[in-house]
Design a protein that fits this description.
Elements lengths: L5 E2 L15 E2 L3 H7 L4 E2 L4 E3 L2 E11 L5 E10 H66 L14 H28 L9 H17 L5 E8 L1 H8 L1 H18 L5 E3 L4 E6 L8 H13 L3 E4 L2 E4 L1 E8 L8 H22 L7
Antiparallel strand pairs: 1-2, 3-5, 4-5, 5-6, 7-9, 7-12, 8-9, 10-11
């Protein structure tokens, strides 16, 4: 009626129908339908026919305006009873679902429990093995980490994790040390023969592809055998170490290798007839500073090193060995000249 008042047009109820124009009980759902939105009562209402929930749907005319509303009444007692019945069935279904789910979970958990018991046993054995190995590594390596720190209170997984981390760190330490030892001379700290062989392969590859440019110098300590025979190998080692320190201080390269007892090789990444002149002058100056004598307490011996160098010739040298042989020949010529000059110190 335009003022939130609604009346019957047709009531198909066969018993006691509403008369045309008779007012209808107002609800929010009825009003929403009058605005064009189908709606259902959320709460029951009472009129002279009883207590109901009603659903309403608007009816539109050809102009798209609401021309009327169709309403369907549902008895509130019947509806509430149906709702309780369904809720009861839902509760029963939930209870049975929980029971069935609990039973399934119990079966799965029991199986997992046995599996976890086995894994726990294996983990404990593994933890013991790791601890034994970590202990051995601790005593061998002498690292500062104390194994007792790994046995601090905590769950088994945390304990195993700490032991595995310790083991990994120790193994990494040994891998690094092994790599260093395989390429480093333990007495001098220079590259050893393995490192020199690796460098040879790299430079030969450069020669093959036409990008090589280098020079080689060979050094040999004079009088090492006499010093070993006269004063012992500890003094001879001091002699080797002293010469190696002079080479490291004089040569502008990190490619210095001890390839024999008293023989050293150095490689410069540049070619040229005078590539090693500055280095040779520096070596001579450092020997002069020591008066060409090595002294250790009452032990004293001449300190000298023979040297020779050669540079790579692109059109004639097929590999680094050709350059090395020329440098080696020059070194032996230098050694022969030194022994001619110092006849009383000739090699025996």
């Amino acid at each position: 009626m335009g003022d939130k008042t609604f009346t019957f047009t047709i009531d198909p109820e066969p018993d006691d129908p509403g008369e045309f124009g008779e007012p209808i009980m107002y609800t929010d759902a009825l009003y929403a339908a009058s605005l064009g939105t189908p709606s259902v009562d959320k709460e029951a209402y009472e009129d002279r026919w009883g207590c109901f929930y009603s659903a309403y749907s608007p009816v539109f005319n050809s102009a798209g305006k609401v021309a009327g509303i169709i309403g369907v009444d549902v008895d509130a007692d019947w509806f509430d009873e149906q709702l309780r019945h369904h809720l009861y069935l839902i509760c029963i279904a939930c209870v049975f679902s929980l029971i069935a789910g609990g039973f399934i979970v119990f079966i799965i958990t029991e199986r997992l429990r046995k599996r976890f018991a086995f894994l726990n046993s294996e983990m404990n054995r593994l933890a013991g093995d790791v601890e034994d190995l970590a202990t051995e590594l601790h005593f061998v390596s002498g690292t500062k980490q104390v194994l007792e720190e790994l046995t601090s209170p905590g769950d088994d997984f945390a304990l195993l994790e700490s032991k595995l981390k310790f083991l990994r760190d120790e193994l990494q330490y040994y891998i690094t040390e092994a790599h260093s030892m395989s390429y480093t001379d333990s007495l001098t700290g220079l590259g050893n023969r393995n490192a020199y062989t690796k460098t040879i392969k790299r430079i030969n590859t450069q020669i093959e592809v036409g990008v090589a440019d280098f020079s080689v110098a060979v050094f040999d300590i004079n009088g090492l055998k006499q010093a070993n025979d006269k004063f012992g190998h500890e003094f001879g080692d001091l002699m080797i170490k002293t010469i190696s320190d002079i080479l490291k201080a004089s040569l502008n390269t990190n490619m210095i290798y001890r390839i024999g007892g008293d023989e050293f090789v150095a490689i410069l990444g540049t070619s040229g007839e005078h590539a090693f002149d500055h280095a040779f002058d520096s070596i001579k100056q450092k020997l002069d500073e020591k008066d060409n004598v090595l002294t250790d307490g009452e032990k004293q011996t001449p300190l000298a090193v023979s040297k020779g160098a050669a540079t790579f010739i692109k059109d004639s040298d097929s590999d680094i060995n050709a350059v090395f042989h020329r440098a080696d020949e020059a070194m032996y010529a230098d050694k022969a000249a030194w022994y001619v000059k110092h006849g009383d110190r000739r090699r025996k």
